[in-house]
Amino acid sequence: MYMMTLHLLYVFGRAVWQVLSRSDCKFVDKQPPNGLSLGCREDEMLFFETETFHSDRLMFKILLFSTEKSNSNGPLGFSWLVPEQMKGSSGVVTVPLLGSSSAEPIGSMSVDFLKIMSFHHTNLDLSQPNRRYWNRHQKPLDIGHRGMGMSLSLDKFNKISTIPENTIHSLVSAGEHGADYIEFDVQLSCDKSLVVFHDLMVTFRLMGRENDELETLKLKVKDLTSEQLPKLKVGPDPVAVEGVPSKHLQFFPKLVEVFQMVPEHVGFYLDIKYTEPDLEDSESDFPYFDRNEYADLILDTLFSHAGSRPIVLASFDADMCTMLHLKQPRYSVLYLTCGVNDMWPVYRNVCQRTFDSSIAFAKSEQLLGISALSSLLLTDPSESKKILDSGLILFAWGDDNNEAGNIAKLKDAGVHAVVYDRIAELKAPV
């Protein structure tokens, strides 16, 4: 086992630290003189955090110690992390470990970094923080999944929404049918407009046919502009609805349009999409937009158009959650997690591996709570209790929610909000 410590050079400030897997889940000021113990657990990560006005002058010295008594006289080795290595908002840097006595290479170390820049807006009021407030005595909330539900794929009960998902009509309809909040997915187009669509890749139909088989093509949403995206033929042709403009049945509405068209009393639960690589290097692992720029575009839209609308932000990307939380004091942030299951890949980020690591991350970053895959909560009710006992707010998402009995079970277990399809059919009468 090894110990580690970190020193800041050329910056006025201090580094706080924590080990993710520890139960206290909080950052601590003082580093032990002979390093911080880091074992070999798969879910263990060592976090260092600091603040500075001059990130271009921030340099870290990392010292590596051994827990063996024969090596207790000093560090085994050291390394440096310099500003030139930390390009952009985030990334992974591999640095050499040099022996303390010889200064010869004895190994290497990978370091993940995240730089969070301040956000500015005329409506940003730092004197009234409420991002950690939640009325725990209110009834559990009903949240319309992608508005009226999924329309591009069947759920586990072989049902599908007849209204195109994540469209203006679907989102407005969910509010009209009693949704407290509506859940929808936000991502960036090529021209850096915020658009609403679930997948980072879009499969669309081509005009021609070959051998009576429909031709399709798959592209990254980020590679097309906000004007091109609504023109794609995605899914079945929408059925015209009397009194509903055809534009409101199109995929890829802009986030600004959603704010304009959905009544302000309906809350928004925004799932902020970001590439989330797994251990198998899936197709979702590709270069994406700079996190600071992306987060600032989201927050600028919120502070410009949200008014008094209740809003909760969420993401599977831990760094995006941290960034959205620290850049502003108004809007609550949830960490989206799927825990351990056979349906989802194992993600590289250890915060996603288990509910325990997700809880530890959310508590350490002082997020409002987590949004968890409901199948795991229904299979093992102790998971819900563990999350609630930690003091976090708990939302539940997943196909299992598309059944009235399961919704009732989750609410009885203390879940604060349930995200589900077909809210007109499944929402219990008041």
Describe this structure in words.
- With 430 residues, the protein is an alpha/beta fold.
- The chain is 18% helix and 27% strand.
- The protein has nine helices and 19 strands.
- It has an eight-stranded parallel beta barrel, surrounded by five helices. It has a six-stranded antiparallel β-sheet with strand order 3-1-5-6-7-8, with no helix packed on it. A two-stranded antiparallel sheet has the order 2-4.
- α8 (404-412) links the parallel β18 (393-397) and β19 (417-420).
- α3 (291-305) crosses α4.
- The protein is globular, with a radius of gyration of 23 Å.
- Residues 7-13 have low confidence and may be disordered.
Radius of gyration: 23 Å
Spatial strand order of the main sheet: 9-10-14-15-16-17-18-19
Report how far apart the termini are.
Answer: 57 Å
| Topology as a string of helices (H) and strands (E) | EEEEEEEEEHEEEEHEHEHEHEHHEHEH
**Percent in helix:** 10-25%
